[in-house]
Amino acid sequence: MASEQEKQDMAWRAIGGLVGLVTAWAVKKVLGFAWEKATGKKPPADSDSLEVGLAEAIGYAVVMGVGMQVAQIVMTRTARKRYDAWRAMKEAAREIAS
Questions:
Q1: What is d(CA 30, CA 10) in angstroms, rounded to the nearest whole number?
Q2: 22: Cβ–Cβ under 8 A, 6 or more apart, which residues?
Q3: Domain map of the chain by residue range?
Q4: Tens digit of pLDDT for each residue in 9-25?
């Protein structure tokens, strides 16, 4: 039978994975919109295509890479802090009830 710690770790993995998926989707949309406003062109759909200039492909890759990583770090840390606070509150309530 799984211990309480293992259950909490599994719960955090599920929450962290969901936060990661939602964050990646949202950041891709926001950065794509910002790219279009800044350059006046749609983001390159296929950076490997020779129709996309090398500078544009590299620029888009850098913007997306840095933007995605920063967003993932911020969201994961925020979600972890909230999860830890919720778990501490739950444990405190359990101690009071017993």
A1: 30
A2: none
A3: 1-41, 44-97
A4: 787 778 778 888 888 89
10 Å Cβ neighbour count for 58?
12
47: tokens are: 């950076």
Closest CA to 76 of 32, 28, 15: 15
> Residue 8 burial by CB count (10 A; 0-12/13-18/19+): exposed, middle or buried?
middle
CB 68 within 8 A of CB 24: yes
Tokens of 64: 């997306």
Across the chain, mean pLDDT equals 85
Report CA torsion sign: 43, 46, 48, 52: negative
